[in-house]
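Handout, tutorial session.
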Amino acid sequence: MKNIRNFCIIAHIDHGKSTLADRLLQTTGTIAERDLKEQVLDDMELEREKGITIKSHAIQMNYKHKAQDYVLNLIDTPGHVDFSYEVSRSIAACEGALLIIDATQGIQAQTISNLYLALDHDLEIIPVLNKMDMASAEPESVKDQIVELLGCRREDIIEASGKTGMGVDRILNDIIELIPAPKGSEDAPLQMLIFDSVFNSFRGIIAYFRILNGTIRKGDFVKFVNTEKEYHADEIGILKLKPEEKQELRAGDVGYIISGIKTSNEVKVGDTITHVERPCSEAIQGFSEVKPMVFAGVYPIDAEDYEDLRSAMEKLQLNDASLTWEPESSMALGFGFRCGFLGLLHMEIIQERLDREFDMNVITTVPNVSYRVHTKKDEIVEVHNPAGLPDPKYLDFIEEPYIKAQIITKSDFTGQVMTLCLDKRGELKNQVYLTADRVELSFDLPLGEIVFDFYDKLKSISKGYASFDYFVSDYRPAKLVKLDILLNGESVDALSTLIHFDNAYDFGKKMTEKLKELIPRQQFDIAIQAAVGAKIIARSTIKAVRKDVTAKCYGGDITRKRKLLEKQKKGKKRMKQVGNVEVPQKAFLAVLKLD
């Protein structure tokens, strides 16, 4: 056990952690030259396309140091704020972390929040200054920032480059020297923490675990503590580039177990596995329960695909434990699911994965956050969906979630960032200059305001330099109203939103104008209205496509034309009574992109 090191890599998005992980794999000979490609651990097609890490990936490396063989278990983690739950799970399975900071950009918001996650678990932190080969690197000023943040010595900071391989040997040396070996006993009752799982259509569910105490052998009879299910360990092994079967694994090891589990709700991430005959006395304290920030309805385009969508969601949840969902139905869209996501990028990724991995075409409704509704009977109702809002006459007041946001930006963009946050009903709490040209701004913001396009706007006004991190602080009373969209007097529940009273008119006007462009014309007029309660606040009309019925009348009496026009008028009237308006998928997406 003393020769095992478990560590993860944490960093802000785009600071080069996947590239540095490639160099570590290459230096330790874990990966053959012919298999080498960029970001080898990002094996999902979507990750390679977007150039971001979505999943944590575990891999084992062997390394010889001072004539001793060491086993290094590396877990590469995502950097984006929407995937911080993945990071927290990786951290729970490790004793140390490489904190990677880009020498050209310095410390960013996500670096700080990931660092605090690691410090909460008492991990040993090794600071690494990456991208030293770039001409725009500013190592001295970034080192000042690191020393101030970590309180370490300047000489502890490793200068490295993922591209050229500079500093990799020193990183491996420090991992072995500084990160403590796993604690635990091989003779104690078995205690294994599940930190991830994947679905394999041939083998069932494969759970990834970290053994804290005890030893497991192939064929052992094991029990999952929280779900109280019992299985035989058909296959256990370690995670190399491809899984490698082993006969036994001991305390400190990271590996996988296949036990022929077919139903996804029998494996919970954060659960403990132990032996049936000699169980451990208590389950391992898992990670914090995930709190979704953004809710949206996901509906199959074809109602018959509902069951397929359900099984796709179950399999996705195995692979992404931060996704939560429950069934719901809508008048406009039929049966579907109300899903909770950690953010908008998370929602976009889930939609893409449903399409690519499970071939599911889905409609996603307007995302919103959860509100606390206080009724006049002193009851508190949690509302995730505008349709679930009680009747206005029973309402006392509504509370909305507020977040504490940390924005780190170059000081040139301070004014624009402040304007953006104040437009979103934010309050400036604090302003700290980290260096001469970098400033940290702290805001209290309503979560509902940042759900739509806040992150995109922040990136564009700061030319990509601002970094953003947040956590939910509390609920505060707000003057919110339910904005309904009516088509020919019929409410489309999938387009209704809860919105602040001051923004309702502008938003309603933009919605009606946008829908006018997107809904195809019919042979009758379509009235698109935005309403708050019974009051119409905005309207657009899609004019009818008119067939020229008098085209074949030339000459003769005017009454011939009038007769044909009257006949057409009656037909249109009847059509308006029975005709229904289809809202295309584009319309639901366009609402998200309203400027």
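The second record follows below. Compare its token runs with those of the first.
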Amino acid sequence: MRRALACLVLLAAGCASTARPIDAPAVAARPEEPELVAPRFEHIFMMPVERALAEATKLLVEHGWVLHEMEDPNYLLTEWKSDQNGRPAWGWKSDGEHMRYLVVGEPLAERQSIVRIFQMKRVSFSNDAEIRYDGKSGELMWKHMEMAQLEQSFRRRGAPVDLATRERDTAPWVELDGAVKGTRDLKLERDLTLRLESRPSLETLTGTLRLTRDGAFFRDPSFYLKRHRQEVQEPCERKVAGFQPLLRPGLTVLIGEPLGTREAPAAVGDMLCEAAGAGLGVTLGLAISRKEQQRIDTYLASAGGPPDQDALLHGDFWRKLQQDGRGSRAVMDLIDRARALRAAGHAVAVVAIDTELNHGSARDARMAEAVGVARAARPQDVFLVLAGNAHTRIVAEAAWSEDFVPMAKHLAEKDPGLVVLELGYAQGRRWGCDLAKDGELECDVMGLTPGPLVASPPEGPPTLRMLPELHDEGFHGVLQVGTLSPSRPAIALGGHEATPAVETPGAPAPAPKVEGAVAPGAPAPKVEGATAPGAPAPAPKVEGATAPGQH
């Protein structure tokens, strides 16, 4: 029955044929809600189907829908709602259009699923009156049932008489069985996608988190970055359009990212190279624990060979099992670009600005302090700071705390010329961490969908688009980088190759092999004390994690 219902709806609406992410719409000159069009490919959620359907249930309930219990957990079905257009009959508005929702979840793999939402409609006609022709007057005559008989019928069923007047009720004599017309509800599907793929990413501070062993002797030569083999640093391959007008001595630019992508560190590396090529000193600030500063300085002064890379990755920040995206291969490559520029004679420095000891506003205050100290030491440098976008917005307050004061707010009070950029991107994927329903910390490849403020074209070189004025959410412009792809932890022995453009339907993404970690596919170990920025106390079961917000 349920399968037949789903097939009927699919025949009426049509469905996408091949499992592949939806092509993201291009961004307009001014951010606006993108036009929704039927997908050519199904969007795959990187999570179990039951988790996606649980969020779909919350979404429907928040919209006022009541769900029926279904034997098959992969289906959700709401009760009917009516939008009556017919003539009232003793309190009932029985004629008109009726609507309900059918949600179909399709598991593809343990962490891959598809969710389709169908809006089902039909027009029904009641039998609460008869139309008769008297043969004389030429007029249609209405013959109604007696009011007393109607009330008695309600009382016999034990229902109050005024039950019939409630707008949400459908008249009991209205027949709603049979064929219905179903169409994909693109708006509701996009709302669900944003809820599932725009959620904050936990930032795991080292604290008491488990570390991997030192497995440098396991690494194959293919693991290491190859830039150290170049005798002379190559010219910048790409320029970031729109960045040149901003360049000046003493400029500070904060770039907020969702963490765990290839594209954000690569674009910042292009800005770093461009500023250095313009003859300016450049300092790069990264959301890495300050405990790693000595290793970073040593690496910048090194030749960048395999032993030097092993020494850089020996720090606790890189070796914790719960990697949140800040210690990605792309970030490691960004540090190596800074090393190569410095080896070529450019004045380049890298500063670790994060802390492992503080949470919430205290942590952001310490991050701002670290930036201030580095700025005072090199006042004429172009200072580029890459961090999670909860820290890089000038607006104080966050969805999880009204008292949260981000790093950017502290810096803007001392530097009116501060420029804050939000990452603009097209729908893609990243590496990140989130809390599962059982409280375990799950770090893996996740989907990422932009809201209208940061939606950008899927292709093209990095482009900086400045806004006419500071946006309400606390940034001055958007650094557009195209479709996002995940950058796995730098300590992963494999999985650093580019993501295939076309996915095989139902094929799970390969899990990276992490030194000393649990077997691929096994759940991450439980840890204690995770908090969101500004949270007064750690949340249960995860220690030292903070959740930057994103669109």
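Points raised in discussion: The chain has two domains: 2-197, 248-546.
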